[in-house]
Design a protein that fits this description.
Blueprint lengths: L7 H12 L3 H14 L4 E7 L5 E6 L6 H7 L25 H7 L2 E7 L6 E7 L2 E2 L3 E3 L4 E7 L15 H18 L4 E6 L2 E6 L8 H10 L1 H5 L1 E8 L2 E8 L4 E2 L5 E5 L2 E3 L2 H10 L9 E2 L1 E6 L5 E2 L10 E2 L2 H19 L5 H10 L72 E6 L3 E6 L2 E6 H19 L4 E11 L2 H9 L1 H5 L4 E4 L4 E8 L7 H15 L3 H18 L9 H13 L13 E5 H7 L4
Parallel strand pairs: 1-8, 13-16
Antiparallel strand pairs: 1-2, 2-7, 3-4, 3-7, 4-5, 4-6, 8-9, 10-11, 11-16, 12-15, 13-14, 17-18, 19-20, 20-21, 21-25, 22-24, 23-24
Helix pairs in contact: 1-4, 2-5, 5-6, 8-9, 11-15, 11-16, 12-14
Length: 606
């Protein structure tokens, strides 16, 4: 078959297949055009999930008749004034969105430029553009897309239900609204208002207000502020506490230079930032804004502009990891407010309120009397011991529970986690605070304390390595040998000493002592693969941290061990000094706080 040129309509529909996947992608292109036009208010309306109609109106700069005619032509754009593809300062620049959309629908663009006395309109029906005609419209632009995929009906079969498509559009508007918090957004679906996000009165705090409005109070109240900068790269936004997590990545919102992106380097950075703080099958919740120099990021990787490529991905990753960890570390012990809510919701009345009466049982609704502590009751409460270094041996004769009564602390002097009052079931510590109580899982809390102390010791000292009796020779591909040799100093900082040994081989002289007996060949292959892909030895660092976590688990105080009051108080004080002490090494919470108001709710006082 001879080579031939494709018809213009076919070319446009092929381009549309890259840009227009579903109604949500149409909305994204049109809203980004409005944002590039300087809009401060954007209104979106869809019908039948966007299949029958999509309308996007803005109050931006608008277009004159000449611009309107060019806007629906392929490869025509106002977003590359100097044709510099490496310094894109707008959200879109391909110049294919409007003609591509018009090739698979009936597209109508009505616009009035700033200062103009009248508006103009142009229609594109299945790729055929009509003339520019006068119209009535206020300043700004309105784009209407009717009967999406009318020119390619087979594409309609791949769309989901109206409800699913409407949800995708809603999610897209939510993400764009978070990326541009100073712009007002309104969304209507089939005549019903789904979103109405107004622009803040003052620019200060606009981002925090928008995140709270979109993601809800529960996220905002259980997140820490991230603001970290290194060179020309900065990360800011909110990162949820490790105890607040999801089963998937849908609650991870990432924005690069104002763009909504989904990038595997950034997702990997989030996993690294929360490693050791969150369960392996859970995902953190974040809303992060990454700002990098324009020339250090390629936004022309994907037609839909949802993927980016960084010139130095390891730098971006390290900034995200360092920023999130610094924010979580600075926060100190802080329980998620959702834990208290869940505790109150799950609490049930005492079981004896529901049991049928049996001979000898107390009347319904009354609990058997409990003897007051004292010599005649047979219950002996040992005297409080001064806080000793934790962990320590339990006092002789210690029972299953320990309690004491202490005078209330003076205002402003009580520590954040209060003072221990009792130990329940040899597992949980009961602490009293100024306005409530705290329940601590002693094993989980001490596990975190031990882990952080091990990591701090590793950071302070020289890497501990074990010398092999004879160097182990590992054969690898030439590229793997080359990258390991070039990064040998970085690997030495972890305790791994190696050198090239002839062509296609590496000689390993020392390995990190903390890893114990390790499969050297597998370790080197993993490191080489990672260095070739990411330029940083994440695998070795991850393995060392995993071993530290295991050591901490085995070296911490176990559930079932009786603690004295002094030991319990010492544990509470250590928690207050330890970073990330709100969760154990496996991501479980170490303590739950119940405010006085929560206790009152339990007993119907509120």
């Amino acid at each position: 078959m001879p080579i031939r040129r494709l018809p213009e309509g076919t070319v446009n529909r092929i381009a549309a297949g890259e840009v227009v996947e579903r109604p949500a992608s149409v909305v994204k292109e049109l809203v980004e055009n409005a944002l590039d036009a300087g809009a401060r208010s954007i209104s979106v309306s869809i019908a039948s999930g966007g299949k029958t109609e999509i309308s996007v109106a803005d109050d931006g700069r608008g277009m004159d008749p000449g611009d309107l005619a060019l806007a629906v032509e392929r490869h025509a754009t106002s977003k590359l004034p100097d044709d510099d593809l490496f310094a894109i300062q707008t959200l879109g620049f391909r110049g294919e969105a409007l003609p591509s959309i018009g090739s698979v629908s009936r597209l109508t663009v009505t616009s009035r430029a700033n200062g103009a006395q009248e508006a103009f309109e142009i229609t594109v029906d299945a790729g055929t553009a009509g003339p520019v005609t006068p119209a009535a419209h206020p300043q700004g632009t309105r784009v209407t897309v009717a009967d999406l995929f009318r020119a390619t009906p087979a594409r309609l079969k791949f769309l989901k239900s109206d409800r699913a498509e409407a949800m995708a559009v809603t999610q897209m508007i939510r993400e764009l609204a978070m990326a541009h918090p100073r712009t007002a957004f309104k969304l209507q679906t089939d005549g019903h208002t789904r979103l109405d996000l107004r622009a803040p009165a003052a620019p200060d705090g606009a981002r925090d207000q928008r995140l709270r409005a979109v993601l809800g109070d529960a996220f905002a109240d259980n997140a820490v502020a991230v603001d970290y900068e290194r060179g020309a790269t900065r990360v800011s936004g909110l990162a949820a506490l490790p105890t607040v997590s999801r089963a998937n990545t849908r609650a991870q919102y990432l924005f690069v230079n104002g763009r909504v992106v989904r990038d595997r380097v950034l997702y990997g950075a989030l996993r690294g930032a929360y490693q050791g703080l969150i369960a392996h099958d859970r995902q953190p919740m974040v809303a992060l804004y990454i700002d990098v120099a324009m020339r250090d990021v390629d936004i022309n990787v994907h037609p839909a502009k949802t993927e980016v490529r960084f010139r130095e991905p390891q730098t971006v990753r390290s900034v995200i990891v360092a920023g999130i960890r610094a924010a979580l570390r600075a926060e100190g012990p802080r329980p998620a407010t959702t834990l208290a809510d869940q505790t109150v919701r799950r609490a049930q009345p005492a079981p004896w309120l529901h049991f049928d009466r049996t001979p000898g049982s107390p009347p319904a609704g009354r609990r058997p009397p409990i003897a007051s502590p004292g010599p005649e009751s047979g219950i002996e409460l040992p005297p409080a011991r001064p806080a000793d270094s934790f962990p320590g041996e339990p006092a002789p004769g210690a029972g299953h529970a320990r309690a004491r009564t202490a005078p209330p602390a003076e205002p402003g002097t009580e520590p954040p986690l209060g003072y221990a009052r009792a130990q329940l079931h040899r597992t949980f510590i009961v602490s009293e605070t100024t306005d409530g109580m705290i329940l601590v899982d002693q094993h989980a809390a001490h596990e975190r304390i031990v882990l952080e102390s091990i990591k701090a010791a590793l950071d302070r000292g020289e890497p501990q390595s074990q010398i092999l009796l004879t160097p182990e020779i590992v054969r690898l591909e030439p590229s793997a040998v080359d990258v390991l040799s070039r990064r040998s100093e970085e690997l030495r900082s972890f305790g791994l000493v190696l050198e090239a040994s002839g062509e296609g081989a590496v000689a390993v002289h020392e390995t990190p002592a903390i890893l114990g007996h390790v499969a050297v060949a597998d370790l080197l292959q993993d490191l080489a693969d990672e260095l070739l892909e990411h330029s940083t030895a994440y695998a070795l660092r991850d393995r060392i941290e995993h071993v530290c976590s295991t050591m901490a688990c085995h070296g911490s105080v176990r559930a079932g061990r009786v603690l004295s009051i002094g030991e319990m108080d010492a544990l509470l004080r250590d928690m207050e000094r330890t970073p990330n002490s709100g969760q154990c090494n496996h991501g479980r919470p170490t303590f739950v706080e119940l405010k006085r108001a929560d206790l009152e709710r339990l007993f119907g006082r509120r």
